[in-house]
Amino acid sequence: MLDGVVTTLERQLTNEVASKVINLPEVYRVQGQLGWARKYADLKKLSDMYRQQLESIKNQIKYEKNPRDGAL
Fold this sequence. Notes:
The chain is mainly alpha-helical and 72 residues long. It has one domain (3-62). It is 75% helix and 0% strand. It has three helices and no strands. It has helices spanning 3-18, 24-41, 43-62. α1 (3-18) runs antiparallel to α2 (24-41).
């Protein structure tokens, strides 16, 4: 789904850098979009990352020694 976006942004960045006059704000903008697209393009990897974070939060709650609500 987002693989095409990554490819398009990579091509756009390559073209921008290869031009005679480099527009730095445009290069930085495309780099930022490319970073975002790479992070969210692999949905399996993204879901695994969120699942791992959720498990970590669950474990912190489960093994918390001093509950904040005052319960024993």
